Amino acid sequence: MKELIILKMGEVVLKGLNRDNFENTLLKNARRRLEDLGEFKVYRSQSTAYCEPLSDDCDMDEAFARLCKVFGFVALARCAVVEKDMAKILEAAGDYLAPQLGAARTFKVNAKRSDKGFPKKSPEICADVGEYLLEKFPHLKVDVIEPQVTVTVEIRDFGAYIHADAVKGAGGLPVGTSKKALLLLSGGIDSPVAGHMTAKRGVFLSAVYFETPPYTGAAAKEKVVSLAKTLKPWCGAINLFTISLTKVQEALYANCREEYFTLLLRRFMMRCAAELAKREDCLALVTGESVGQVASQTIPALAVTNDAAGGLPVLRPLIGLDKEEIIVRSRQIGAFDISILPYEDCCAMFTPKHPKTNPSLADVLEEETKIDVAALTQEAMATLEKIPL
Ligand code: ATP
Ligand code: MG
User: Fold this and answer.
1) Quick one: 253 and 210 in the same domain?
2) FRET pair for 311, CA 20 to 30 Å: which of 59, 64, 144, 212?
3) Among candidates 264, 271, 265, which has minimal Cα distance to 285?
4) Which ligand is nearest to the CA of 189?
5) Is residue 173 in a domain?
């Protein structure tokens, strides 16, 4: 039996004159994610996309799993496709959905007829299919309110499509339709989630990790590489960079007051990120900060951090989320188990005992007169490396 995946497009269909651009990007992203799985034809008609295997060796399970992570699709279903002929539809419903119907106690049938030339109307299709399935699976009962399985028959342009319940898609907008941003990716729980949420709105990401060897080791870097790889199925290709802030950290340690260490270091991260963003054509920075989570994330501290971002917008998608909510999302995207692996944080050994929670920009700037900010920034940028994923 011929099988394919139907994919409902979400917000893209509301995009007016830009709709074609959004839909083409979405299909291109879908094709790219399937590249190594065999030959598939991915096309669209009205607000639905179709993914059709062109050979027998296509891995449909994996294709479905990957498409569930493509931003822009709101629902997906694997379905059998047959001719628009009632006998064939009945047979396909019974055979193709046997695993689901065999395991269920209740079901209902839902019919959609976008091809108005089909001789039976939707209620008649439902009645015929329901009757056939009740006979074939005598243990089943019809429950139109809360069925365990909903059998859907769609009569469309190219054939009749039969499927069980659709699965929720990743939602959002196709990556690449909202320009590009640079994610500050640490090994923690928050920043991968921030990256995921930003990509969900169609933003293409590059990422940067600030290391401080030998205070942070290879394991910490490996962890960030793993996190970036975890993001790829959603975000597509990600350019991952590392920059060493060792010299910066040592200069701060030698010259500045301890309670300012974290803030001053975060300002260097912003400066370097802004510089890299320019080179990578990124129009914004993204961080995993959330108001009040730690001393460096109070509103006054965020203001001080922003001041060093070179005028770029700093996107903080987690700003209003509690840690518990962030953890739920981290688990959903498969990052949590990597994020909680033990590692030495960039700032851990230079963490002040009493960090400034209510810093003034004037005091911070005064503190920065004790070091050569421009030279240290350039020295850090000279350590820039691109890490293959
Ligand atoms: P996370 O869980 O993402 O590490 P956090 O709660 O540990 O965040 P901070 O250490 O204050 O908070 O970092 C706030 C944000 O700054 C991070 O979410 C990340 O975007 C960025 N950041 C912090 N450290 C680094 C680093 N070493 N490399 C890149 N970005 C970093
Ligand atoms: Mg951190």
Assistant:
1) yes
2) 212
3) 271
4) 1
5) no
Statement: residue 260 has pLDDT above 80: yes
Kindly state whether residues 304 and 196 are assigned to the same domain: yes
Q: Judge whether 133 lies within some domain.
A: yes
pTM of the model: 0.94
Ligand nearest to the CA of 346: 1
Regarding the beta carbon of 287 and ligand 1, being less than 6 Å apart is answered yes
Q: 212 CB under 6 A from ligand 1?
A: no
Please indicate, yes or no, whether residues 108 and 257 belong to a single structural domain of this protein: no
Q: Ligand 1: which atom is nearest the Cα of residue 287?
A: 20
Q: Which domain holds residue 24?
A: 2-168
pLDDT tens across 310-327, in order? 999 999 999 999 999 999
In a shared domain, residues 246 and 190: yes
Tally the domains of the chain: 2
Q: Is any ligand 1 atom within 6 A of the Cβ of residue 216?
A: no
Domain assignment present for 376? yes
Residue 237 and residue 135 share a domain:
no
What is the chain's mean pLDDT, rounded? 94
The reply to whether ligand 1 has any atom less than 6 angstroms from the CB of 355 is no
Say how many CA atoms lie within 13 Å of 383 toward its Cβ. Answer: 19
Q: Rounded CA gap, 360 and 363, in Å?
A: 5
> 5, exposed or middle or buried, with CB in 10 Å at 0-12, 13-18, 19+?
buried
Q: From ligand 2's centre to the CA of 385, what distance in Å?
A: 20
On whether both 124 and 217 belong to a single domain, the answer is no
Tell me which residue has its CA closest to atom 20 in ligand 1: 287
293 pocket-lining for ligand 1 (C-beta < 6 Å): yes
Question: Taking the chain, what is the end-to-end CA distance rounded to the nearest angstrom?
Answer: 38
